[in-house]
Structures are given as structure tokens and as C-alpha cells.
Design a protein that fits this description.
By secondary structure, the chain is of the alpha/beta class. It folds into 2 domains: 8-46 and 181-254, 3-Layer(aba) Sandwich (Rossmann fold), CATH 3.40.50.1000; 75-178, 3-Layer(aba) Sandwich (Rossmann fold). The protein is 30% helix and 19% strand. The protein has 7 helices and 14 strands. It has helices at residues 27-36, 52-61, 74-85, 126-137, 161-172, 184-194, 208-217; strands spanning 8-12, 18-19, 22-23, 40-45, 71-73, 90-93, 114-117, 141-144, 150-151, 158-159, 177-178, 201-205, 221-225, 243-245. It starts with 7 loop residues before the first strand and ends in a 10-residue tail after the last strand.
Amino acid sequence: MGKENIKGFIFDVDGVLVYQGTVYPGAVEVIDTLRDKGMVLRFLTNSTLKSRKSCAEKLNKAGFRVYDQECITASSATAAYLEGLKPKSCWVMLESEGVDEFKSFTQDSENPQYVVIGDNRSQFDFDHLNKALRLIRKGAHLIGMQSELIDSSMGELELNVGSWVGMLEKASGAQATYIGKPNPYMFELAVRTMGLDKSEIIMVGDRVSTDVKGAQDYEIRALLVKTGEFHQEDLDGDVKPDYILDSVRDLLTIL
């Protein structure tokens, strides 16, 4: 890798740089070194709870040097996608800071053009989900901020956004549009802001199913780290990373 023309890196956040509130050894130094070398950096996370601002703030508090405009969360990417559609109205089912990305949209929970689902956590109850179902059956378009079914980045294993959206898809007969990794829009958005050719970029992630597959489908090389959500059996499938490292701290040894 060291002799190749690499000018930028896209980093997954949870599972690569931090995990369950702990910074991985060497992660801060890797980001600082790459930045000092003039590399273009982006931080791509399927978290819907974080806005770009809160994502950067949390990384900075953990000791990283990261800027808002370098972060792309599943919520900010979904908002960017919606901006292109110019919706008349939408019902955004989401909690926490990620909601800030949707301030410019007309919110309507009674007759929305789009039902947009992120991690709504405590609001994923009988009444809210049935209301979403009825709106979708009436013709509202369904957008899932990301498609992952489960997650353990916050500690205990829990249902992720894709599980709730998938249930509504099956019940309503509608096909959702998914935004987050491994779907191409997330990677397209990152590359568009980097000013680099795809061949000059490496994606660094811990999940074969989202980070590696998504990057390779978009013709970006992928480096897998054996931390976070990685499981050895992930390597048994058809999707093969371009590079594999034990952890992000080993990245500097091959550059």
C-alpha cells in the first residue's frame, strides 16, 4: 500500500476508532499522522443518533482532531438525500442530535410525503409503528436511514434501524430506500466532498457486510480491521477486503 497513490482515507467510527466508549490504542496518533501528511480524511458512521456536529464533538472530546465537515452520519446523509428530492413534507422518526440535520424540512406526522426512519428508540412503540404503517399504506414513501439489523456499539446487543424498517416493509408491501452503508449514496457523498478519484481513497472499517462491501461496490478499496463488530467468520463469505489489519494502529506500519 505504501507505494500506491493514496491521498485520502474514509474511516468508519464505531469499531475502528472507538468502541463502546473506549478509544482504540494508537487511533488518535494514526489520525494525527495522516492529517500531518496532508491526507484528506472523512469519518463515515451509520449512526443516526449523531449529527455531523455531535459526531465531531464526541471524537474531539476523545482526543481526536476532527472537523464537522469531515463527518458524515447516516442522518446527515439522509438529510442530504432528501434535499435532492425537495419533499413537500416528511415525518422523521428519530431521537437525539441526529434530528438537527432535518431542521429545514417541513415536518408532518399526519400526511407526510416521506416517512423517514432512524433510531427512534423509545418511540418505536405500538402506536407509532402502526401509525407509520398506515401512512405508508396510504402512499407515503419509506426511507430507512440505514439497513443494519443489529448493533452492539453502545454495549448490549440491540435492534438496529434496518430491523424496524424491514418490519414496515414486510407489513406494508412497500420497498424502502436505504441511505447508510453499504448503500452507494453514503460513499458517493463522501467522495464528492473529498475532491479525489476513487482510486486514491481507502475505506477503513470493521464490518465486511457494510464497510467493505459498500466501498468495493462503489469501486473504493477497503481495509478491514479485526476490531469492533468483526467476527472471523466474516471472511468466509464472497466479499474479501483488499487489506486486513489487526487494528487501526497498524495502519501506519504499512504506509
